[in-house]
Write a structure and sequence with these properties.
By secondary structure, this protein is of the alpha/beta class. About 25% of the residues lie in helices and about 30% in strands. The chain has one domain: Rossmann fold (3-Layer(aba) Sandwich), CATH 3.40.50. A hairpin with a 2-residue loop joins β3 and β4. α2 runs parallel beside α4.
């Protein structure tokens, strides 16, 4: 489909995960939905929450997979196939990055999963281990000057500065 882009925020559904650093991707697409006045709907055929928006003449689908982080590719693959999207140019995935300071965002144009299970799942459902061309917005969750502990650090509540 022409002139349509998909922005996927990775996270885990459920109140126990809300506002955790691991859900930075969910938070990012929620903020975009507010900014672009887009309402969320539950799309059972994609197992995802989806919001439709327009930004500068470009139609955008915002997505929060409801499959849990490690199975996010199921929802992303279904959306890509249904809307006939080209991942190299029409897909941006927002994920948490334990190596970035909390509150910082880095954009990158592709690469591998870096061991991130949500990105691995997306790669599997897109049929590639190489996510080059698929953009990623990496939102930080590491406190400055502190070492990281993946499990506990990712699920602690995110606190704004």
């Amino acid at each position: 489909m022409e002139n349509l882009h998909l922005i996927v925020g990775l996270g885990n559904p459920g109140a126990e995960y809300a506002q955790t650093r691991h859900n930075a991707g969910f938070t990012l697409v929620e903020k975009l939905a507010v900014r672009w006045n887009a309402g969320w709907t539950n799309e059972r055929k994609f197992n995802a929450r989806v919001a439709r928006a327009e930004c500068n003449g470009v139609r955008v689908l915002l997505c929060q997979a409801q499959t849990f982080m490690n199975l996010s590719g199921e929802a992303v693959g279904a959306l890509k196939n249904f809307y006939q999207l080209q991942p190299q140019s029409e897909l941006l995935v927002a994920v948490d990055d334990a190596d970035l300071p909390l509150g910082e965002i880095r954009l990158r144009a592709g690469g591998g999963s870096g061991g991130h299970h949500g990105l691995e799942s997306i790669g599997q459902h897109l049929g590639t281990d190489d996510l080059r061309g698929c953009g990623s917005a990496l939102a930080g969750r590491k406190a400055r000057g502190k070492s990281r502990t993946m499990c506990s650090d990712g699920l602690t509540r995110a606190r704004p500065r």
